[in-house]
Amino acid sequence: MPFHGEERIWVGVVAAMAVIFLAALAYAAWVVGLQVPGGDVQLVEPQKALQELKPGVREIAPGRYEVIIVARMWQWFPSNITLVNPVEVKFRLTALDVIHGFHIVGTNVNVMVFPGYVAEITWRVPQDAKGKYLVVCNEYCGLGHQNMYGVINIIR
Ligand code: CUA
Question: Does ligand 1 have an atom closer than 6 angstroms to the CB of 100?
Fold first, then answer.
């Protein structure tokens, strides 16, 4: 008999916990589906990102912009953006080298930017937003990290 006394109880407890955890995992996979995080994200080879994504600002409908930004140590490209009467801005971002963090200070626009992936985040611009907004990098990306910033200028 390999187990004795209280040992037997604890083996039972551990086995029960393992069953509960596996059941919880199976249930979550059944309810949510087995997902690869960001599985529907667009991929782009970092070496080709500049040609393929064509960084810049496009107004796709009145007040609706798509802004494509490429990050590299230690700048955003483009880093100086002007938006006229923006309502909704969809940012699409990728990085050429390491992980950067795109954050528009004073807003909830804050997304990690990975080489090889196109991150998307939409900013519903408050009606009273105007003037200059500072963009910073909030993922440490090397010696010049603290100098990696940009400006979004909103004109009403
Ligand atoms: Cu880019 Cu820190």
Answer: yes
Q: What is the pLDDT of residue 37?
A: 52
Overall average pLDDT of the 125-154 stretch: 96
- Cβ of 141 closer than 6 Å to ligand 1, yes or no, is yes
Q: DSSP strand E in 88-146: where?
A: 88-95, 100-104, 110-113, 119-124, 131-137
CA dist 125 and 133 (Å) reads 12
Q: What is the pLDDT of residues 62-93, one digit of tens each?
A: 999 999 999 999 999 999 999 999 999 999 99
Domain map of the chain by residue range? 1-34, 46-155
Tell me how far the alpha carbon of residue 135 lies from the centroid of ligand 1, in angstroms.
11
Question: What distance in angstroms lies between residue 86's CA and the mean position of ligand 1's atoms?
Answer: 26
Q: Which CATH superfamily is domain 46-155 in?
A: Cupredoxins -  blue copper proteins (2.60.40.420)
Q: What is the ipTM of this complex?
A: 0.98
Ligand 1 within 6 A of 140 CB? yes
Long-range contact pairs involving 29-37 (C-beta distance under 8 Å, separation at least 24): none
**pLDDT at residue 40, as a whole number:** 72
